[in-house]
Amino acid sequence: MEVFNTPNKVIITCNKRLSPYLQQEVKELGFDIVRAFPTGVELKVSVNDTIKLNLNLRTASQILYSLKEFSANNPTELYEELSTIAWEELIQFDGYFSVSSNVDNETISTPLFANVKVKDAIVDRIKEKKGMRPNSGPENNKAVVHLYWKDDRAEIFLDTSGETLAKHGYRKIPGKAPMLEALAASTIFASKWDGVSAFVNPMCGSGTLAIEAALIATNRKPGLLRMNYSFMHFIGYDETVFFQERRLLKDQINKKATPQIIASDISEEAINVSKMNARTAGVEQLISFEVCDFAETHVPKEGGVILFNPEYGERLGTHTKLEITYKRMGDFMKQECKGYRGYIFTGNPDLAKKIGLRASRRIEFYNGKLDCRLLEYELYEGTREKTKVLYE
Predict the structure, then answer these.
(1) Where is the THUMP domain (predicted)?
(2) 217 phi, psi to nearest 5 deg
(3) Closest to 163 in 3D by CA, of 106, 225, 207
(4) Is residue 124 domain-shared with residue 209, that is, in the same domain?
């Protein structure tokens, strides 16, 4: 099975509500989208093409290359169909693989049972053809096979990513309640920040938003920080393709970019964590870190984007302390951030009412399973008409 050079259906998954930003990235890489849906996109490309995608995408989770679609009513039929695939041409007989799945079938009480059936079909086929069986287990740092099974429709994929692409590899110390890197990148895309004007991130926590801004501004891609993907562990992998793509990533870095990125937090520990994460990402020198209350954050006069990701407590009910904080954020943006576009990411609509400003846009996101909004505020300097041209 020559999957590395054979175009076939590929599904790129992402978290809910990130699909518009994933579509934007995929198109900018020069790929045609066959179909888009709320949690991903479909392409028709080869596994070698997925190498480029894996190394470049900031908003994706997994990149899945389809091997076969078929009908299966129960585990026995699933096993029989999977046994017809030439697994011995994909997975080394002395190698290692793992199985992941998305299963909704009435004959299956737990996805783990479906995973075992997939594993058994692969192992039995390879043992029959090669006389030896590969090892398998839960770790997804080698070859990964993914099963999608809903009712009687099943599809088996090579997961070319392995460990999720949504984590970008620089956050060795996550900090308190960190925002997933793919989500952080998507909020920056949603803000339409130009990568040149100021980017101000008060309450920066572990620094994810500021770091993602610096990575975007300098065109540093996630693949620069990662050296292991599932595609490397399938038969037919040519490492020269990977290293050629990786060299392109290095060549595309915009070393002349000097965006003014400011990250502040009242916690010295949080700033220390942010600095370490930024150092790992290779962008520490691009970010000005400040230990201070958010209202004392330095805001350059030239304008740009200011983005808050404050605590938002429980979905139901509000906390007096947070109510005061949200009101102060609104006051700070109104008084100190004229000429900026202001953003507050929150999962608490009751607290959002305390900001005291009218949002010009409410962009929908999820943070985990929590329904959230990125609230946009046009912080006009002078008259509305004069300032409007700044954002056209």
Answers:
(1) 49-160
(2) -65, -35
(3) 225
(4) no
- Cα–Cα distances in angstroms (integers) from residue 202 to residues 196, 300, 327, 341, 376, in the given order: 18, 13, 15, 14, 16
Beta partners for residue 98, in sequence order? 144
For 323, the domain range is 181-220+254-379
**Does the CA dihedral 211-217-222-224 come out positive or negative?**
negative
What's the CA gap between 199 and 197, in Å, rounded? 7
- Contact call for residues 98 and 137 (beta carbons, < 8 A): yes
Tracing tokens 């929150």 back to the chain, one arrives at: 346
pTM over 0.90: yes
Q: Which residues pair with 376 in a beta bridge?
A: 343, 361
- Tell me: do 135 and 259 sit in the same domain: no
Q: Is residue 175 part of a domain?
A: no
The CATH number given to whatever domain includes residue 320 is: 3.40.50.150
Does residue 191 fall inside a structural domain?
Answer: yes
The string of pLDDT tens digits covering residues 17-65 is 999 999 999 999 999 999 999 999 999 999 999 999 999 999 999 999 9
The amino acid at 155: E
Assess whether 112 and 215 both reside in one domain.
no
